[in-house]
């Protein structure tokens, strides 16, 4: 019994020792835990406030104001508002007028003309009621009321210097001038100069001569007119009736005279007479269009070439009306009829890509010898 009691006592001593060690260890862990809590309480508390971005944007510079004045000129080929003496009534310009009225003829280009600042046409023929005509192979006339065709479609200027200006005698020219004046259309011929002021206040002057007669006299008309108008206007146009009919390439005489026109002060030279398109050139920074062909043309029911165009150039002026050195020119390829055949006297812009490309290719070919312009696929005239 004594031996058993000793074993029990030894067991209790070992158990108590182990228990004491465990309790001491737990006490040490507890102290360390509390100390760590106290240290965490002393740490700074991180805030979750959103970070505010500093507004350090650069000040916005105001866009520059363009105070310049832009003026767009549209020019066309021959507008012969009437019929030849050899034509009958059926299918004639007169018949179309009687059936459709004045607003029919330029209906498909009216929006183009209305959007520009000045539209200039070559009025080839007379607007008169005279019945006795000159002894010529071809004479052309329309009624005085035909001037409304131009006036109702935003045409502001007409050149009269051509070889059909007096087909029905001196009175027929007077009647034509009166008809145009009645539609507020400025006109020019020889020593009578045209002046038109745009809505923006830009003053446009133009001189018109036919070089098919006395060359020196007509040349003097042009030179004197340009030099007289130059100090009076902001923009100056020379209208030249010259060249060989149905020839697509300008000759040396045309080129020399067009260059003279620019040397005398013209800002743009517009040519007519050949009844077909001819090339273009840039001379001393100014555009020359040697022939714009036919446009609203009552002189042929079924011409061999229906292609034509509207030439447009936009000029830039400073606020004090000084012409600035800028370039913005283009062509709008057209057919002189709304249908392929016969001529219905209603010029219409082409919409088919192949038709536009054909006219542009023609003009590039006709202009190639001058080597100063290239017309791109959209009709924009680019300097070379």
Task: Give a description of the structure.
The protein has eight helices and 19 strands. It is α/β, with parallel strands linked by helices and 384 residues long. Strand 10 (235-241), helix 7 and strand 11 (268-272) form a beta-alpha-beta unit.
At the third CATH level, what is the topology name? Purple Acid Phosphatase, chain A, domain 2
Q: Segments where pLDDT lies below 50 for 5+ residues?
A: 1-9, 43-48
Helix content, binned percent? 25-40%
The gross shape turns out to be elongated
Order of helices and strands: HEEHHEEEHEHEEEHEHEEEEEEEHEE
Average pLDDT taken over every residue:
90
* Strands, total number: 19
Major beta sheet, specifics? Answer: 8 strands, mixed
CATH class category name: Alpha Beta
How many structural domains in the coordinates? Answer: 1
Determine the structural class based on helices, strands and strand pairing.
alpha/beta
How many alpha or pi helices? 8
- What is the radius of gyration? 43 Å
- In CATH, the architecture is 4-Layer Sandwich
Within CATH, the superfamily carries the name: Metallo-dependent phosphatases
Beta-strand share of residues:
15-25%
Q: What is the CA–CA distance across the termini?
A: 132 Å
Which properties best describe this structure?
single chain, 384 residues, alpha/beta, Purple Acid Phosphatase, chain A, domain 2, 8-stranded mixed sheet, 6-stranded mixed sheet, 8 helices, 19 strands, 24% strand, elongated, disordered N terminus
